[in-house]
Amino acid sequence: MAKKKKAQLEEAIGPLNERYRQERAGHEQLTAAKRKLDELEIKAQDAERRYDTATAADLRYFAIPDIEKQIEELEVKVAEEEANNAESLLKNAVGPEQICETAAKLTGIPVTKLSQAENNKLINMEAELSKEVVGQSEAVKAVSNAIRLRRSGLANPNQPPSFLFLGLSGSGKTELAKKLAGFLFADEKAIIRIDCSELGDKWSASKLLGAAPGYVGYEEGGILTEPLIRRPYSVVLLDEVEKAAPEVLTVLLQILDDGRVTSSQGKLVNCSNAIFIMTSNLGATYINAAKGNKIDSATKEHVMDAVRAHFRPEFINRISSIVVFNRLSRKAISKIVHIRLNEIENRFIANGKNIHLKLDDAAMEYLCKNGWSPDLGARPLNRLIQNELLNRLAVMLLRGEIQDKEDARVVLGEKGLEILPNHEPEDVDMNDVDNWQDSDDEDDDNARFQSPGLD
């Protein structure tokens, strides 16, 4: 099997190797000509220093012009080849895109993002974020406005953008943070995630900044300061910020005010390039009691009363924008289902497979109905997709019932979602995974525990 796969790979990359050799030949000629020109220049300068006018004249008026003409012809030839082939493997000159890509890899700063037409990107920021974050247009608008203020230079450069996301679980607060990181920093993993439920005691501030000298963990640094030193362009996500101790909120207040903080090791950490997003369930009872999915002004004021009762005024005033998330509607859940299914197909592509999911209307309705709850929002959807779709699909792929470049057809059966096989299963010992059960798990009214006899 391995030899067969190796042969297929060699056959696939054969044309690429041939194209690379052809392109390399032209580039090597140009490189050799430029190297020859450098050597002639050195010889000419040496002859001029020795007052060898005959040799210097021969080089300056004959040899060097000839090689310069040759270089010019080769550069035109290589440029034409690159122009005719947009997917050229080799480039004669390093352009801005290559420089930006290299700088981004070395520094962790998303220069490639900044090198694009950022004005158009920022103007259309709402439309881009709303493709992934559904039913939260007000939240997306508030975030977009704050980011545009920052990028246009109208916001205080020393204060990092900060947001307080309020709403029910599963309404999209964390999802918006992830998509914002992907939009701004070209990587959804550019998130420093901190669970504030673990920062409830008065000593927790040392976890953010690092342990004091002489204490355990001093060399490791803080869970906030060390990641920001390594990757200053990040989204800092503080989950359940209402559970953090007052000492932790004091540290956050300093960061939001000055854009910097000193770690336990004495390093001054610049926080002004990060984006701070705090999530909270404060006022959730008012959102649950409200009618409709969209939060009205009265409910929003009740939620803000709960926020003002919990946080100090100076802390609230340092936050760039406070956003109350809507409850997700059934229409929004339908869009989220399509987004999740597209993500699964993208995973197939990333793994070198081309498999399309085809769900009938009943199966889609089943996911929309059972993947949503009033209390948890869209949280049950991911678990439902994994249990009823992905687990079964994984087994069918391993058994060869669905293969590459095929459709995975999903319908609604009597017990839930069913995936229709495209082929007969290969020889597998475990034929029915869904109904498999260990016999020892079954109840037996007549069985009783017997202690093993002792020798």
From TrEMBL:
Coiled coil: 30-91
Entry-linked Pfam families: AAA_2, ClpB_D2-small
Gene3D superfamilies per UniProt: 1.10.8.60, 6.10.140.130, P-loop containing nucleotide triphosphate hydrolases
Regions crossing the membrane: none
InterPro entries listed in its UniProt record: AAA+_ATPase, ATPase_AAA_core, Clp_ATPase_C, ClpA/B, ClpA/B_CS2, ClpA_ClpB, P-loop_NTPase
Residue ranges, compositional bias (Acidic residues): 426-445
Residue span, Clp ATPase C-terminal domain: 328-419
Gene Ontology molecular-function annotations: ATP binding; ATP hydrolysis activity; protein-folding chaperone binding; unfolded protein binding
Name of the protein this chain belongs to: Heat shock protein Hsp104, putative
Biological source species: Candida maltosa (strain Xu316)
